[in-house]
User: What shape does this take?
Amino acid sequence: ARGGMSGGAATRLHPTPGPPASSSTTPPAHRHTGLCRHLHHHHSAHRPPAPPPAGPPASSSTAPPAHRPPRPLVSSMWATLRAITSSRLMFWWGRRAPAEARSSRHSYSREERGEMHGLSYLLYLKNSDGKYISPLHDIPLYDEVDKALFNMVVEIPRWKNAKMEIATKMPLNPIKQDVNKGEVRYTANIFPYKGYIWNYGALPQTWEDPCHKDPNTNYCGDNDPIDVCEIGSKVCSYGDVIQVKVLGALALIDEGEMDWKIIAINQEDPDAQMFNDIDDVRRYKPGYLEATVNWFRLYKVPDGKPENQLGFNGEFKDREFALGVIMSTHQYWCSLIYNKTEGGDINCKNVSIRKSPFCCSHEEAKSLVLSAGLAWMQPPVIGCSLNLGAALLARPDGRMLFPDK
Assistant: This one.
């Protein structure tokens, strides 16, 4: 567009005029600038031509001026060309905006320690400088570029069964596999689904306070960050940090605790612009919400537990309601991180909340990571004189190669 503009500017739209006419016959030309004057010329192009000025005819000895298009038409042509150029520039800007937004966001990397699906496995997150951070406390709740979006930490990619979660009780809160009775935990398949049917994770800087009773359901929080079900088409990876658009919420009552599930979509999903509220999920992904209700109601039944209960008779709440739930859990987190409320065994160690009494330096954070790894290298203490030998015979997932039958 710019090349076309330069070429047009370099080529005259009318021939070079001849000798100037007498001042008594032709008024001097004026140079018009500004949008209002361009609009004046644009409208003037549709008016009938003005009658020739009165006065004696020009001398026959004077050469007639070269033919030129009427000045209003020339100005109209220029206005049209500039409008086209402007629209092209705006389109070019719009196409570049997403890339510029991604470049201005914080980037995060992952560091895995231990064997995947083993008791010692830990996944730590680092900032763009390669420094260890807490995914629960140091990643902002809101996106840095678009405050209508939220950051989400992916704990479990779609179709996976391993029950991975942010370790709220460990320093810097790495992602690790949940453990039940000394065994890493997997979620059973709920026919006809395979594993988790969304990218599942949490919103950072949120906390469902176990001492606060939810006014809508009369149940207290589950002592975890608020959960997110991301319904986009992309299958994410463990520890991904993505920006999501909130669409609604489902009230799960899990073993007597309030466990909100936020329904959201990745803002980079090709269809993200089609989804703005929970009704859009029904419209464009029919059956997905019903499958979600069925999954959460039954997913613990294979473990011998009863069906979960759902608030509001299993009805999804809309985006506005979900935003209110997120804001309340963020306020509970603020009280937690500034030590204004009792957090129990939640570890609040962080590197970015300067006024928090739990804030530490990056050097201390690194030492915490190293000490956590050394703790897992120690032989298990179970009251047996062959602890070290048992540790050497253990598989990478923590199980014994030759278990005692």
Summary: Helices lie at 2-10, 35-44, 71-104, 278-284, 288-298, 319-337, 362-377, 387-392. Residues 71-104 form the longest helix (34 residues). The CA atoms of residues 334 and 340 lie 8 Å apart. The first strand starts at residue 109 and ends at 113.
